[in-house]
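Please check the following for our workbook:

***
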Amino acid sequence: MSNASSPARLSSRDRGIQTWALLVAAYRELNARKLFWLSIVLSGLVVLSIGALGLDEDGITIFAWTLESPFFNSTVVAPETFYKLLFSNLGVQFWLGLGATILALVSTAGIIPDLVTAGTIDMMVSKPLGRTRLFLTKYATGLLFTALQVTVFTVACFLVIGIRGGAWEFGLLIAIPLVVLFYSYLYCVCALVGLLTRSTVASLLLTMIFWFLVFGLQSAEQLVSVGRTASRLELDAISQDLEAERSHPDGADAPEVERLEEELAAQRSDDDTWQLVYAPISWLSAALPKTGETLSLLERSMDDVAAMPGQWEEQRAERRADRRSARGEDARPRPDDGAGPGGEIFGSSRVGGREIENKVAEERAARSKLYVIGTSLLFEAFILAIACWRFRRRDF
């Protein structure tokens, strides 16, 4: 190969022109696929669904119809918060995080297998273009497909929330990089499998399996985290009861102290088991991409949306207390009023489900955005490093 055709001899400007030409050509190829426009149309339908819903003083409105609700109306939830909830849950979590992601994977799974097929790769490597840059440019093309879809959808929802909800929330645009990041965690696996197998079907299926395994592991971590937190809170509660019994002004009740000591020993054994189970799950989860948590960062960035679950739980607890008062019962709040997972499910008799749920939520929120995104990007960089190494070493 002559020096004129060597990639090392090309100027930065020439390399930039080459990369841009590859991106434009790949985009035109994706743009010609029907799934690209199908995804745009479906995104438009989701936006219309969000825009069709609304709130008034009586309840939820659907165009000109009103579904009356004393618990969900504009006097309880501000219209702008309502639309942001719809965007976060229906738009991002359900549509972009599931439906649009599957369509994007189906559309882009063949980019790398098509690249390494005979004929295409021969023509590519004959050009003065580095293999690493070629692979990463093709990889970026898949992300470009998703970025365009997410941008169109997010901007449309931004306009709907501004017009219908009366709030121009520029913070919603953070959904664009978050969803692209979420998709990149999956697409790097798809690209590596496509390179190794040269099969579009294999890369798509194995990526879906990987996504399912990551979801299952994260769900297991959340469940075990609830059990571990319940055990720890129960252990603290027993210790406090034992200390209170020992320091009783009238003297400690020996049988009660003995019973509490036995209960404390049993709870410590249970707590050690929870810690033993949680440790390997948390380590493995830390090494893998945080798909669900990355999308959840959008809710964490909107204070009013993040606070809504707690407000609803408080309202439910108040309604339960009102019903007990109407029946002539004790109307004081109970530990498990409005709770999610009950403490009894995890062996806790002194700690209510709401306290456990709140503690788990606090620990989850304590994870910094840098940890969630940083550890996920480290996984992606590791997978891409393997793919680039294999692409450079492969004999085409």
Remarks:
- Residues 11-209+369-393 form one domain.
- The first strand starts at residue 53 and ends at 55.
- The chain has a mean pLDDT of 80.
- The beta strands are 53-55, 59-62, 65-68.
